Structures are given as structure tokens and as C-alpha cells.
């Protein structure tokens, strides 16, 4: 009986071997993403990311290796952090695959946008960035977390800043709240026109 219990515990340990600290992604972000404009925006060093491509590919492979059954067994914040990190990391991959480019929009064509391109092997499917954001992260009833808008980075000028750290379940609440404050504090996106007595806010609130 004891042997069966030990084997069962061993199987569980192997099944949940994913690094929920996202150390590989965190290390890349710490090296290649930096806060600017007093911490309300960030800059991504894509040439440096390109030189670290092997480390990025290793992390992406770890994401792709997670099965739907394993994912479903995780805690809510572990799942949400996984999906947001995946979105941001695969976005970086998409840009590097076409670098140098002036904008992620340059990857699109007359017949489709880069966000609809299916290139992401995740949870047993091949997804687009739109599939990942709207079908999983923003799926009604799944997480119902409006602050995800401030941590999902689409690599476009109007998007929120990419944090120089990975999102992790244990810190997710604080990271979401911090990203919200930073975004709202960006006076290039959100400001009060005293003369016209109008509040101008980012299109992200549309």
C-alpha cells in the first residue's frame, strides 16, 4: 500500500514539473526590457533578444510541452500567469521571426493581421495571438480579470508596457495592480485637459 502511495506521489510530481516561477522568461525580460519615462513605459531590446534566441526558444518549448490536462489541474493564478506570459513571449518570437521591422503591423497583409496568424503550439492546439487573448485569457467566466489589459503586450505603440519580469502566481495580484497604476500614470495616454475640462484616456478603455 505504501509503495502504491509513493508511486502515485512520484507520478504527480512528474506530471506537475512545469516551472511556475517562469525563470527562463524572467531572466530574458530582466536582461532585455527596461522601464522608461519614469516607469510608465518600457523599451524592448529586440537585437539583444535575438542574440538570446536559444534561451527564448527553450522557454517557448517548455510552454508548448504543457498538456491541457496538466494545465487544468493548476490553480487559477498559475493558469492566468501562464497564459499571459505565453502571449507576451510568443509575441516576441513573432517579431524576432521578422526582425528588423518598424512595427508588428508590418507582419500583416491585406488578407490578415499578425494577431490572427496561427503559429502558437499551446495546450494541444495551434493558436493565434487573438485566440490566446480572446479565447483563453478573456474567455467569459474563466478569469474575469479586467486588469489583464495592462499586462498583455501586443508590441504596438498603443499597448501597455511589457514588464521587465515574468508574471508569477504568488505575485500576480501585486503585478496586475502595479501595471494598472503605471498605465494610468502615463500622461501621454491619459490626461486631464484643464482648459477644455475634458478627460482624455487611452483607446484601451473603449
Automatic annotation (TrEMBL):
Keyword annotations: Signal
Q: Does the keyword Signal apply?
A: yes
Q: Which domain of life is it from?
A: Bacteria
Entry keyword Glycoprotein: no
Pfam families reported for this sequence: DUF547
Q: DUF547 domain location, by residue?
A: 72-184
Q: State the signal peptide span.
A: 1-15
Record-given protein name: DUF547 domain-containing protein
Annotated source species: Azotobacter chroococcum NCIMB 8003
